[in-house]
Design brief:
Largest sheet: 8 strands, antiparallel, barrel
Number of domains: 1
Distance between the termini: 37 Å
CATH architecture: Beta Barrel
Radius of gyration: 22 Å
Oligomer: single chain
Strand order of the largest sheet: 1-4-5-6-7-8-9-12
Helix content: 10-25%
Number of strands: 12
Shape: elongated
Strand content: over 45%
């Protein structure tokens, strides 16, 4: 297992633990008062109900699913170029958000997107495993519309930075590159309890051009490689914890 796959596995375990742990902390620190969401009595105080500490304003989300990276073109300084294709990969995101109103929210999102390179002579993917790893850090604005008592639909967009690199099974990698990133997203959520939402989401992540790094051209001379901006489509399962 190469370094990139190890990183996404470690990130998945860490983020999967973070949301339930935060929820348990909130429950143990909470006070009892009239809840707008539940009529179930809890604790020793009769006629009083437990509600999230921040009235559902703060939330923590975890998304995981499949990512499809669109083909890109890598070119060098003398004009040689090749088409790079990708196999389906994986995406993992964690969001910390704040609901300003019932409909509008803003969130900070940190993600990890790994796409195996299917074909590239320049990157060496024709004779070894090469992964393209992106780490998006985005600020999103979300609009949510309730659909009945438990369902809700949302759309949103975000801007930020995306850090990326190519790595192979032998420990080699290109220099880490940063690029401007933009994102569109949409999804549906189902409230499985007063605090937890489960849902399905689609995300489209795009970036500007990348500096891939140094190498050698077809004549054997040193050159610098660049690539198109990347375009990634993801279908994700989401889990949200409200506080």
């Amino acid at each position: 297992m190469n370094a990139a796959k190890t990183r996404i596995l470690t990130g998945a375990v860490t983020l999967a633990i973070a949301c339930p742990a935060a929820s348990l902390y909130a429950q143990s620190s909470g006070s009892y008062y009239d809840s707008p969401h539940s009529s179930t009595q809890t604790g020793a105080a009769r006629g009083r109900y437990y509600a999230p500490l921040l009235n559902d304003q703060l939330y923590l989300g975890l998304d995981a699913g499949v990512a499809w990276q669109q083909d890109i073109t890598i070119s060098d300084s003398i004009g040689d170029s090749e088409k790079v294709t990708f196999d389906p990969g994986a995406r993992l995101d964690c969001e910390l958000g704040y609901n300003f109103t019932k409909n509008w929210a803003a969130e900070l999102e940190v993600g990890l997107d790994i796409s195996p390179v299917a074909h590239s002579f320049v990157l060496g993917a024709d004779f070894m495993n090469v992964d393209f790893t992106e780490l998006p850090v985005m600020v999103n604005v979300i609009y949510t519309q309730p659909l009945g008592r438990r369902f809700s639909a949302y759309v949103g967009g975000g801007l930020g930075g995306v850090f990326s690199e190519y790595s192979n099974d032998f420990g080699g990698s290109t220099p880490t590159e940063s690029a401007f990133g933009f994102q569109a997203l949409a999804g549906i959520k189902y409230a499985i309890s007063d605090r937890w939402d489960f849902g399905i989401a689609y995300k489209f992540l795009g970036t500007t051009e990348h500096d891939v790094g140094p190498g050698f051209d077809s004549n054997g001379f040193p050159t610098e490689f660049r690539s198109d901006g990347t375009l990634t489509h993801s279908i994700l399962v989401t889990l949200t914890c409200r506080f």
